Description:
In chain A, helix 1 packs across helix 3, helix 5 crosses helix 13 and helix 9 (165-178) packs parallel to helix 10 (194-209). Chain A folds into 3 domains: 4-47, lambda repressor-like DNA-binding domains (434 Repressor (Amino-terminal Domain)), CATH 1.10.260; 61-164 and 297-324, 3-Layer(aba) Sandwich (Rossmann fold); 165-294, Rossmann fold, CATH 3.40.50. In chain A, helix 12 (251-263) links the parallel strand 8 and strand 9. Chain A has helices spanning 4-11, 15-22, 30-42, 49-56, 78-91, 104-109, 112-119, 134-141, 165-178, 194-209, 226-239, 251-263, 297-312, and strands spanning 61-66, 96-100, 123-127, 146-149, 158-163, 184-188, 219-221, 245-248, 273-278, 291-295, 320-323, 325-328. Chain A is an alpha/beta fold. In chain A, the strands form 2 sheets. Chain A has a 6-stranded parallel β-sheet with strand order 2-1-3-4-5-11, with helices on both faces. Chain A is elongated and about 90 Å long. The termini of chain A are far apart. The interface between A and B is large, with 51 and 51 residues. Chain A binds a DNA duplex through helix 2 and helix 4.
Amino acid sequence: MTTIKHIAKQAGVSVTTVSRALNGYSDVNAKTRKRIEKVAEELNYSPNSLARSLVRNQSETIGLLVSGFTKESIKDGFTVEVMSGINSYVAETEYDLVLFNTDSSKQRKKTYTQLCKERRVDGVILQGIKTDDPYLEEVMESDIPCVFIDIPVSSDHVGFVSTDNIEGARVAASHLAELGHRNIGMINGHEQAFVSKERLQGYKLGLQQHGITYVPEYVKDGSFIEQEAYNQAIVLLQTHPEISAVFCASDLMAIGAIDAATHLGYRIPEELSIIGYDDIPLASYVSPALTTIAQNKYDLGYYAARMLINILKNQQKPEKCILKTELKIRQSTSTSIR
Amino acid sequence: MTTIKHIAKQAGVSVTTVSRALNGYSDVNAKTRKRIEKVAEELNYSPNSLARSLVRNQSETIGLLVSGFTKESIKDGFTVEVMSGINSYVAETEYDLVLFNTDSSKQRKKTYTQLCKERRVDGVILQGIKTDDPYLEEVMESDIPCVFIDIPVSSDHVGFVSTDNIEGARVAASHLAELGHRNIGMINGHEQAFVSKERLQGYKLGLQQHGITYVPEYVKDGSFIEQEAYNQAIVLLQTHPEISAVFCASDLMAIGAIDAATHLGYRIPEELSIIGYDDIPLASYVSPALTTIAQNKYDLGYYAARMLINILKNQQKPEKCILKTELKIRQSTSTSIR
DNA sequence: AATAAAATCCGAAACGTTTCGGATTTTATT
DNA sequence: AATAAAATCCGAAACGTTTCGGATTTTATT
């Protein structure tokens, strides 16, 4: 492996000059630079980023901490699409991405912050962690620049990007109300998700705007899991047969709910309207195709990466960034027949 | 940021001893070790992996080079699932994963090998590159340990894992033949994919085993793209109306083909049987649910990661690893009515 | 030709570890 | 108590860069 020293020797010059030549400094003679570049080329030199990072005290590396990259949750294209957005932006820069493994066994021994500090990442993007995750606190206490996705926290070194969950959920509920539904159930995620709290709020708001009173028993938690949503939908529909429409806080749960309803003999959308949230790839392929609130998951990642890198370059203070959502009307919702 | 020196000073001991204590060497007194560990804890020490990597000349980092992590190809859950498998295995080890960005602008300036050498990754996993990708050659010429997915190359430092594409395609064709079909079309990927060559071979073999002669005009390339498969299916079915079954080299293309056939007025599977390949999450959700050859994409990644790390630890020579596939019969194929 | 200014170059220290080879201290043996 | 053996510790060099401060060389000015 050839180093700067080899080049220096070969070119008859000091390592300082080699370093400065190769890094484009102005105080090196054009001819010298040419010669050095030629030697570097000949010796097939590539700089050792470890050494550089060590002395520069920055690694040009950003950490990616995602949950939901497990075998089970692949079907839910959400995480992946966010990652793809992150990847795309980062690809435009000189940074590389290191994927931190959220394996539980390792997690026990080393905290995330330790991982980040060891690897000397310049910053971190976090996605899919729960509100009660100890890492949330850890990050706030550390001074690692950091951008959260879908968790509204901020400080002088942490920002976040999210979509407008309240508005999205409000639109979902309104859509159902405007179709004439009065008894609208909801299958939410879980307590430890900020988005769930917000979506519940939006749901209530939507009902209120249409003069519908909020019935707590109409709301169940499905933990963002298809099967769990199936179970909760069964319960919900059996105990409250007056319900004619259900808002699900994720598409995967909506798919579970459709299955449940179909199993109970409902025809969809004629007898039961179901609206999802996310607009994952599956949404438009299932039948009936899912009416849903679309989030731009790719942008979520793209903007998160952009914000982080801007922070790292001191071009921006951490801030919040809220993306718009969009109602996509497909086949799983229709006017109430009751 | 506290270093080993701070600890040494605080604990009244040399840096050598701190290093050896923290790394579990035997030649340090139990009491000294305790004291050092306590100081390290108090000072909130975490080792600088950059410095360690520099002197050890290994980074405990493995590079991941995937194409197909773009916005467009997310629907095809293939890449993601492979990545998830890789991630899972790597999570069990002390390695971390760095994602190399295959952005074209960067690509032009730095070759993959340069990226790998700069970042000093210990090894690389490659997925989704084409057979005419210059990097293939680059890798073979370098000495970076490396595992390919779905490209059968090997040397003293490169191995690969793949599925049995010939057998899988043979089973697909046989399945159709056994349902009574005699005119079986195929929509393949493209010339630059090894898997396409193999699947074509398997398709021919399957036909042959059932006494069906191979008709070159029955085979089109759909480039693994849904829309392109749609187009090719239209052409294929219009020019050869005798075709009663089509084997598609990917599920996404099968979905495109189903769309095309439906558009042309075919009822599926009654009038046209379609079988896919991959068994992506979508496959079981579309209607009719897709009969397909399932590959264990997760395992593909998992085994690739395992092989690479075994190579790095000198516990294994690079080798090839071929996984089995499985025919999943769903609703898109049925007996021939002609 | 002497001097000043600009251009070009360099030595040495530093980043935070690991590790070689040997030194010192402690314990066991006679 | 002297000696040998084992246990414990340490100094210094090394990994491959960058960068500070200054030295040397070249060019421009008088």
